[in-house]
């Protein structure tokens, strides 16, 4: 069995990534715990994540578990290899949070129609710890885990390279930094594969942003690819009216 493969992109060089990013620092800790892994790192990256992710899919050994992960994610689970091996006995791809369903033109894994309007609690899955820039530490439990999911949050997605190659699955470079996760999960379903949420301890350094021009442009591309162009009327339910500071922390979540 090959060691797990960590696939990530960073704006920094390799040394700065290892010393200052949440992912890099957590990899140093995993090394100290003798957890074996390969690192597929795109340094000083400005290209779509898909460019790097797809290269790793093609280059990795067929039996290697690849983790597509953001560089602001800390891997806190010393048993991560065993967790992934267990989860991939039940599902073809794993995440830590997700949703049981996905609707046409859904603008985020947790928001079915409009950004900031949460899906029903029984549809949300998994849990994640947030370490925020303002010093707050937030643990959010969205719902059950060890469950089948229609869509996963792209902060952490794991799958075996050979499984993805066998179905000719790849991330879409047109969805450079947004919606690549939702699109990838839709592709999984069309290929007859199953995604699931599994309990893996991680920490995320961002609560998510949904109000950039790049996000809005990519949303148009994503919708057109799967469901056709967005309706022209901005008051339609499928238009993701964006509040000023939306994020992925559920209201009422205790902070420390």
Q: What report would you give on this structure?
A:
- By secondary structure, the chain is α/β, with parallel strands linked by helices.
- The protein is built from seven helices and 13 strands.
- The strands form two sheets. A seven-stranded mixed β-sheet has the order 2-1-3-11-5-12-9, sandwiched between helices.
- Strand 7 and strand 8 form a beta hairpin.
- The radius of gyration is 17 Å and the shape is globular.
- The model is unreliable at 234-238 (pLDDT under 50).
Keywords for this entry:
256 residues; alpha/beta; seven-stranded mixed β-sheet; six-stranded mixed β-sheet; 7 helices; 13 strands
List the helices and strands and how they pair.
Elements: E1 4-9, H1 14-20, H2 22-32, E2 37-42, H3 49-59, E3 65-69, E4 73-75, H4 80-87, E5 93-95, E6 97-99, E7 124-131, E8 137-141, E9 147-149, E10 151-152, E11 156-160, H5 161-166, H6 180-190, E12 195-197, E13 202-204, H7 213-227
Parallel strand pairs: 1-2, 1-3, 5-12, 7-13
Antiparallel strand pairs: 3-11, 4-13, 5-11, 6-7, 6-10, 7-8, 9-12
Helix pairs in contact: 1-2
